[in-house]
Design a protein that fits this description.
Length: about 80
Amino acid sequence: MGFTIKEIQQLLVLRNDSVSTECNDATVMLMNQKIMKLEEKVQFYQHALKVTYIFRKIISLLDLSSGSLIYVWIEP
């Protein structure tokens, strides 16, 4: 998930019973940031998957025996 050593140390501090409010708030903020980054990655890969499905459909409709796929990508 991409945690740095500093972030891991920060999370390990939570194992102590006497965690300050500031430490807890910072940790919650860190987790919120990680969640947002993961959501962005999920959206990116969902979009990439949709584009790949569309590309597969386009390829399946082309007559590849005539080399039309090559012309589709070479000719503007």
